[in-house]
Amino acid sequence: MSSAREHWGSRTGFILAAAGSAVGLGNIWKYPSMAGQHGGAAFTLVYLLCILIVGLPILLAELSIGRSTQLNPVGAFKKLASNPRWAWVGFMGVASAFMILSFYSVVGGWTLKYTFVALTGGFNQLAADSTAATNYFTDFHTAPIAPLFWHLIFIGLCVFIIGRGVKKGIEQWSKVLMPVLLVILVILVIRGVTLDGAKAGLDFLFKPRWSDLDASGIAMALGHSFFTISLGMGTMITYGSYLHQESDLMKAGLWVVFLDTLIALLAGVAIFTAVFAQGQNPAEGPGLIFIVLPTLFPNIPGGFIFAPLFFFLLFVAALTSAISILEVVIAYNIDEKGWSRKRATYIFGGIVTMSGALVSLSLGDFNILAPLGITYFDFLDWTTSKYMLPLGGLLTAIFVIVKWGVPNYSREVFSKSFKDRVPDFAVTIVLIISALVVAFIILKEMIEIFI
Ligand code: PHE
Hints:
Bound molecules: phenylalanine
Shape: globular
Order of helices and strands: HHHHHHHHHHHHHHHHHH
């Protein structure tokens, strides 16, 4: 089975694909909203710390588990553990992937719609009018049909790319889309920092306001560090499984973390400079992107170009992440069920389209979770980013420590860089610390629910 496995064509191709997975709505939509609400740079510092202490070791764990087994998450845990119980960690990953994609692709559809509206000058009527922008967004995303149309196009694109395979699909497209993303972002950052009053935005992002950082902000930063580097659900196991044995995991992991963080910060700069230059409220939450920004663009010189560029950027980021999420489910079905890539892609493309439709409808008049007082959208978002991803990461770290063994992990991770220079006990301590931090935060979240 593994002899026929597809592989990445080049190291750069892999890094761009993995960074493409990491850089997504999490960086450009979620991160700036969260930073805005929880103390700006204070939140950012905690988030960076979480990425280094917790994210990087677990990212390397996933990549090495994938590369050494050349299998999807379920198959990988089964093979290394020689005990079917551990395969449940992989199953939980596949389930999380399915749940995340169901809402992620809906928001992906919104980014397409907003790109289209921006291109056709639709934001002009929203200039400096937050009520109009709020109504516009509410009318659109709670409507029964229109968001489904955009969602379908978004999933269609994912299916098209994934169906072409690892090298010709995911890698080829990442090699085109990631540089495009970076160029657009740099253009937007330059526009942002040259606006009058941009400095307040930079201060907001880079000067810490510790008093605004509360416990819930810290838990959010940790959960987000998982979400943003695509951890805890086997994406990186899957992408790692397409790596050749001779690749340098440590270097690749550092590149992914670096690009992901850089792009989140740049997105923050592009957004907050524009928000502050026009004296808007930074703490708008998720509405920051879809409500506040459309009111700002018409008043920014050149806004008619920057608005579609921004939403296209968001769309590209979402697309390269969505394909990595779908790939987890596809790889599982190819490896474990013996399905062809095309068959798995079409069938799961169809299933995700339907479950995404339920998510989208839950924001309007048809919410299957109405009796619980929560939308199906929020339910999927919260359960995955607050519990399932951290739990998946925690179990992966525990798996390395107690089952697979730190020497095996180190052999994979340090096969090129730092070879024989990092003692196993140091690696064990790092993994234990990251497991403890995750366990603590999961417990804290649980206690909050029950008390
Ligand atoms: N990392 C992506 C983002 O930041 C989301 C994602 C989560 C992708 C989990 C894959 C797996 O938006």
